[in-house]
Amino acid sequence: MSKNELALPPLRLFIDGEWRGSSDGGTFEAVNPATGTSLGNISAATADDVHAAVVSASRQFNGGEWSRLTGADRGKLLWRLADLVQKDVANLARLEAMDVGRPYGEAFHVEIPLVADTFRYYAGWADKITGRTFSLPPFNGADRFSYTLRKPLGVVGAITPWNAPTMITSWKLAPALAVGNTVVLKPAEAASLTALRLGELIAEAGFPPGTVNIVPGIGSVAGEALINSPGVGKVSFTGSTAVGKHIGSVAAASLKKVTLELGGKSPQIIWPDADLDIVVPAAAISIFANQGQTCAAGSRILVHRTIIDEFSTRLKAHAEQLVVGDPFAEDTQMGSLINQKQLDSVLGYIAAGIAEGAELITGGARLKRPGYFVEPTVFIGTNSYRIAQEEIFGPVGVVIPFDNDDEALRIANESQYGLTAVLWTNDSKRINRFSNDLQAGTVWVNAWGPPHPAVPWSGTKASGIGEDLGLEGLHANTVVRTINLVSSA
Ligand code: NAD
User: How many A from CA of 406 to the centre of ligand 1?
Assistant: First the structure.
């Protein structure tokens, strides 16, 4: 099969190990954003369908085959799933490129391999879930000691965004399953295809039916039913801050556990000692990878005033030679935005930047071709502009000058968000100070890239609550139970 031929997964709901249509026959369309062509109609889960999925997942959790597996057995299934993902890398990358509009090479070389790595990483934890022990002084003359167990939470409701759908699905599924939860997954309506393909691979790996259920559908219907379901013990959400706040409030009312991985407006800070030959292309990747539709995009580019002319000239030249176009062409570096709504939003921000008085040094226009392509765009401006304060989620960076470290730190932290930051310097004193004082879940030093599954991922301020990935992401899918043993004298 050639790179851009498509073998679609079932465009239906995956409930209790079966592929079925929605209870009211409703569907929504999957569209290839790079061409505007339809990829097919996907069954749209109703509240009744979500309920059926939660019942199935609860059955497996409460006494079903899944609940009786050992940690090692769960690890074997996750490892098998990792192998199947690895074998299927070309197909998954193809589905992702067609569904999201991102370059096929990015999905093939970076994202899908990380999906396999994530399942493999958590496969390793599945038989190593331990608590703690406590030696305590006697209680009323009786010996005592206490220990803790980490227990699974039950049914985890996982809700994912469209920008890196396969990778983030693995962030939700792998730790939840490793500790013994079951899952109902609601993928983003703009990019559900790889989640459905994962459903096929989950069945092939041999997970008991109902351990993972997939309910594609509309956020306000299927997502809303999932977050309100009394059968769901935890909601694990990645998406926008606005929807995250809503989910947080719903979860608070029912005291459900939540993890909320939300938006960002991350600073990159560039000092004069940095090697611009390295920094310019790397900083550009941070802004323009996946067309800027990356939560961790380094879209506020703080540059020391003494190098701002040289840096801006070089960034402009670099942006202008980036190849924007067909996601399946070998030399493509940027593909299409996800849909018309996102295009309108990004172009709206570009217009707002110009209206506010920011200097547009390159880009700013839509490409004249079908699909939703926007030129890599760079402004010079100040941190108070909307384009520097709001998450654009498109290929738009704002260069902001600073004169000294105090000012750089102040500007970097003057944001509602706190997801990531990137430091470009070799000065270890500066690195230590900024690593400590920046308000961010992750700080990169002289690099930028996707997180490794072993390393925790989280945001502060409006970027979220709780951790994904690493041991922290595993523990976030458990509840601690304390056992007190007292032996009478
Ligand atoms: P979104 O919030 O619009 O949608 C995310 C998911 O929530 C979708 O599946 C959607 O259907 C669902 N949803 C919408 N309304 C809902 C409701 N009322 N109840 C339950 N679910 C509902 O986000 P998006 O546009 O898909 O993704 C882009 C956002 O995700 C950006 O803000 C980006 O920064 C963020 N993001 C964050 C991270 C991170 O790790 N922090 C990673 C990737 C993306």
Answer: 34
* Residue pair 5/344 in contact by the 8 Å Cβ criterion: no
Residue for token digits 């391999």?
A: 113
* Separation between Cα atoms, residue 215 and residue 223, nearest integer Å: 9
Nearest to 472 by CA among 150, 198, 181: 150
Q: Is 261 a catalytic residue?
A: yes
**If we measure between CA atoms, which residue out of 248, 251, 322, 320 comes closest to residue 290?**
322
**pLDDT(4) > 60:** no
Ligand 1 lined by 469 (C-beta under 6 Å): no
Q: What are the Cα distances from residue 380, in Å, to 68, 310, 348, 438?
A: 59, 13, 17, 22
pLDDT in tens, 134-175: 999 998 899 999 999 999 999 999 999 999 999 999 999 999
Our CA dihedral for 178, 180, 186, 191, rounded to 10 degrees, sits at 20
pLDDT in tens, 323-376: 999 999 999 999 999 999 999 999 999 999 999 999 999 999 999 999 999 999
Interatomic CA distance for residues 421 and 444, integer angstroms: 6
Q: Strands 396-402 and 300-304, how do they pair?
A: parallel
